[in-house]
Design goal:
3-stranded antiparallel sheet; TIM Barrel; 2 domains; single chain; alpha/beta; 8-stranded parallel sheet; 19 helices
Length: 539
Amino acid sequence: MINTQADWKKPLAKFARFGIPLLLVGTCALCLAVSWLNWGLVLALPLLAIAVWDFFQTAHSLRRNYPLIARVRWIMEDLRPFARAYVVEGDLEGRPFNHDERALVYARAKGELDVHPFGTELDVYSDEYEWLAHSIAPNNDVPEEWRVTVGTDQCSKPYSAALLNISAMSFGSLSGNAIRALNKGAKAGNFYHDTGEGGLSRHHRREGGDLVWEIGSGYFGCRNKDGSFNADLFRETAALDQVKMVEIKLSQGAKPGHGGVLPSAKVTEEIAEARGVEVGEECVSPAAHSTFSTPIEMLEWAGKLRHLSGGKPIGAKLCIGKPHELFAVIKAMLETGILLDYIVVDGAEGGTGAAPVEFSNRVGMPLREGLILTRNALVGAGLKDKIKLAASGKVHSGAGLAMNIGLGADWCNAARAFMFSLGCVQSMQCHTDRCPTGVATQDPSRQRGLVVEDKWERVARFQGQTLKTLREMVIAMGYDSPWDINPASISERLDSARSKPMDAIYPFLATGELLEDAEGTQYARYWKAAQAHSFQAAA
């Protein structure tokens, strides 16, 4: 993360954080020294008391980092319901979460009521409106919890995953306190925490929660000095009992096909330790992997990782770009017999940190299309019953889980929603190292605002309450499990006069259809263009 704060702004920022409380202290001192200003004590002392309380309390990051002045935010939140009718947020490509989406996460994380009076405020005739079909005969006889067993018969240590987990966010992008709070919440709630590609840090290990170790093109935590993959270092870390699965990151939704650079000034001792680089050395994450260049080579490497890890599930995460490349991986699995244990589809609308605007807005396939495409590729090739499929991209609610599962996902991952549960206020300062809540910064004075012992409970509570809502939706729809939800159960409005169920909008292939007869469909063209020995399209 690069600090882009202008030099002239730094003194102002420090004054905003600490100057006002100090000014109050000075005012009190002056009032005591000058008798004719004694009246000022009536105003100054109560404000000083509030500022001191804010500075030492642990429940609110903003008030802890910005004593007294942060309270303006809570005043505005109280006023927001009255102003909502007059303020319209733009719904642009790559937009941040809106007020209601953030409010839902905050309420669940804090254990507050997440109900809303006077019905929906959504425009039900908007062409963006979609809904789930409930049943006239709800089914109350459903389990309290569902889990997904991840691992093919090539995996000797399958993992039982929750239906909502923490998506990939690296230490370095997030603070050490944020990583610890997320992991401790995951342990308490019995769900997993994806490390992100920045390596498995001391902060990930400290709380003991389940980890999915993500391996990106920089091979952080298992690399040689030249940036190539180091099998011995991988074996050592993958053997940790805390590591439950390994995930090969092919691309991410925020900036698919784009590498990254962590400037040398940002490579601290802790970050260098986690990533396996030198302190103060520029840290480069290439756009492409160096361990493979073809689909078959990728699967051979995945098989090697499974062996080195002692038989743990090995998966891949990607944002879908050229469909024939995904189909090439499917063909390579059929040809070699080497299977991935799971695939995570990351939507182009995803992303928690900074990325080039053009990439965020215009590169990569949105989650819905990517999820359906991957579901059809696995089902059409007869592999869906073996390889599990996860969805990641702006997931924050039980309804979102239900819709993704209905379109083919076995479980979902969320990133931004869990950042909100930590207290993120979406200040959009992730790339500047000036995150006001201590979530996305390495600045110790700002990290101080995020108190792990308070925030981990919110992480666990948000996840649990969201799964509780999913269960209530399954009951309302009359099903036995979330995986009974299907495309016909989900409808989307096409315009103000027409709506259709999903299976009337998108094609959904039958089991083995690609192997038998899919002629004349777009999927048949993708399948024909794919080749196991190359990511290039066949002529």
